[in-house]
């Protein structure tokens, strides 16, 4: 009788321990889910998925394979400084078949033993895993990627283990990835000029303030070029607005190619471009402007199937060098603007340097 009571008590204790452990897991997952849902940037989200996930759930490796046929994701992360380990944990594919091979038609999570033949592309840094869970990331019934969990423990992920919880996590991850991607794209659209694809004036207004502060802090010179196409109206009038657009696009691309990655190029409006040359004194900026003017005057621009034209630029140059009258971003831009006006009235196709 007494023995029976003890056994019953042991069983109850064991059940209580399991219930408590499940509750802890549930709380743990809910906290993780909340952090995923609260993420506002793609970098922070990727950090949660690729790094925090491994620790929180005691895994050996977590990787993401994303279907990115138009390089949308890759363009968004291009400008970010990402941890070098992500080079092997953040994987992209342009072909749907690469993803499809890992899942059945129902696209349910796949829990199985690790096989080097099948899974090495998903876990390039971990050739000795015991088991893996491949979770399909689905949005609007489309497979957008796969979240891949790897464990050294061979019994951690096996086909007979319930996968509802993992399926739920994959749905949250897929939704968060889509949301942050859209969010980042919107941010980018607000700062890009849709015609030329380069930065717009809003972006420039933010950057010039940052660069002026940096130049003051580091006591380094900062030059600004105001570039204005000569007689651009004639191109529109003679060959049409679409031809004018094509010329603007080509000019933006040519200017971009001539600059260093630390310089800032933006379309200021219409046929005007602005450039910030960081850590560049006036004489060096004048050389760059001169090279730019000559290079562009030697290019040919197709305005229709049978006609190519040449163009010229006027450039105004101003420099903040901590010993002249230029102390603010407004003064720097205004000085460059007045200088381009002086270049125009003194004959165009030339550079004018602000005093
Ligand atoms: N095709 C095209 N034209 C534009 C765009 N934005 C502004 N423009 C045109 O650019 C022309 C600018 O004309 P103006 O300000 O007179 O300047 P300009 O003809 O270049 O003459 P100068 O600057 O004095 O040499 C106008 O005809 C605008 O319609 C655009 O996005 N696309």
Plain-language structure description:
The protein is built from 12 helices and 12 strands. The model has no long low-confidence stretch (mean pLDDT 92). A 5-stranded mixed beta sheet has the order 2-1-5-4-3. The chain has a 5-stranded mixed beta sheet with strand order 7-8-6-11-12, sandwiched between helices. The chain has a two-stranded antiparallel sheet with strand order 9-10. Helix 12 links the parallel strand 11 (313-320) and strand 12 (351-353). The protein has 2 domains: 39-189, Beta-Lactamase, CATH 3.30.450; 201-353, Reverse transcriptase/Diguanylate cyclase domain (Alpha-Beta Plaits). It has helices spanning 2-38, 42-56, 72-78, 86-89, 96-100, 116-119, 164-189, 201-218, 232-239, 241-258, 282-297, 329-345, and strands at 61-67, 90-93, 110-113, 131-139, 142-151, 222-229, 264-269, 272-278, 301-304, 307-309, 313-320, 351-353. Helix content is 49%, strand content 21%. The protein has 355 residues and is of the alpha+beta class. The N and C termini lie far apart (104 Å). Bound molecules: guanosine-5'-triphosphate. Guanosine-5'-triphosphate (GTP) is lined by residues 195, 228-233, 236, 241, 244-245, 248, 270-271, 344, 348.
